[in-house]
Design the sequence.
């Protein structure tokens, strides 16, 4: 059974690139990836912060944040 | 045909975690992942630097660096 992963992004160029190269390239037998655009779904910023996300793009897997390069600070999306 | 990706690491805890959660979880139909321990294979540090790698753990896909969290500066491995 695949584990849930959440890809947090803000539609920025760094985000879109990370989405295409990593988030969309994870083994579907391992992860089911939900995509969350924090610039749109601002209500989910608190949830991302709670998981330790500091910037986007980031993947949260089993509650742990994996920041991929740097697109934007979470603070800039509020 | 799968594209080549190189996972650069230094055996650090952040590296091992990123390896297990991301590098080893990429879709094998998309990427063939080579693992390079830069603490051991110091001769490959120049190649990583040339691809834009600043720290480990990092994946290089199609010549582009994707830094995943932060384990160690490349400079610290020389």
Sequence:
């Amino acid at each position: 059974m695949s584990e849930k992963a959440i890809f947090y992004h803000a539609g920025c160029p760094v985000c879109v690139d990370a989405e295409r190269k990593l988030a969309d390239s994870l083994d579907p037998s391992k992860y089911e990836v939900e995509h969350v655009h924090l610039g749109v779904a601002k209500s989910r910023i608190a949830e991302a912060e709670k998981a330790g996300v500091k910037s986007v793009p980031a993947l949260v897997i089993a509650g742990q944040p994996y920041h991929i390069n740097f697109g934007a600070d979470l603070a800039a999306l509020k």
User: Anything to note?
Assistant: The mean pLDDT of chain B is 96. The beta strands of chain B are 3-9, 31-37, 55-61, 64-73. Chain B touches chain A at residues 17-18, 21-22, 25-28, 30-31, 59, 61-62, 64-69 (CB under 8 Å).
